[in-house]
Structures are given as C-alpha cells and as structure tokens.
Amino acid sequence: MERTPYGFLLVAAGGFLGAVARHAVDVGVGGVLAAASGSRLAPLAGVPTGVGTLVANVVGSFALGILLTRASSDRIRLLVGTGALSSFTTYSTFVADAVALGTPAGAWYVGVSYATGFAAAALGLAVGRGWRR
Question: Which residues make Cβ contacts (< 8 Å) with residue 67, sequence separation at least 6?
Fold first, then answer.
C-alpha cells in the first residue's frame, strides 16, 4: 500500500465520504421506519437500535466484496476500501447496539449481522468476479 502523503489524503477523503454516507443511512433508515410505523416523532426517535448499523454493514460488506475483485489500483483500494468503506461500516457501533439491545435480542442481532454480512461479502465477491472487464 502507498504510504505517502497522497495515500493518507486518499484515506482521509474516503473516510470523510464514508462517514457522511453512514450518517445518511442512519437518518434515511430512521425516516423510513418512522414513516412505516406512522410515528409523528422525529425521524430517529423510537427507531430500534441497530437497524441503520445493520443496513450500512451489509451494504458495505457487499461493496467491499466487489471492490476486492474489481479495484484497478491500490489507490482505489485506499480511497474506497480503507477510507470510505471502513468508515461507512462500523464495528464499534455494532457492538454498542448489541449491548444496548440486551442479551436475547443482542445475541440475535449479532447472529443476523454476521450471517448477512458474510453473505453480502460473498455475493459481492461473486458479482465482482462475474463482471467482464
């Protein structure tokens, strides 16, 4: 990997974009769930813990699978993989959400998160390998 100032800039720029996209997923999922439940509360109020995190992690796993098979350069991997996708997906929030849900629901959430994350990554790898250049 590129360990130059430009490489660090690529990671930083990707990290900024990934973090903003991650926040947008949380807000969007909260709005959809609030609308679906007919809630007149603020978009994120009352949203079950972990739904936005689960969506971001599954989408990010799929995207990483594609990136690993299709990236044309180390710089693309730095910008998109190390920068954007690493800040878009989140392990620390995943763990905090699992703990906040309590033992039975938290265990279910961990299982669903790992199963869907691995499945999405495998699907991304398969899709990436299936594309012709």
Answer: 76, 77, 80, 81, 85, 124, 128
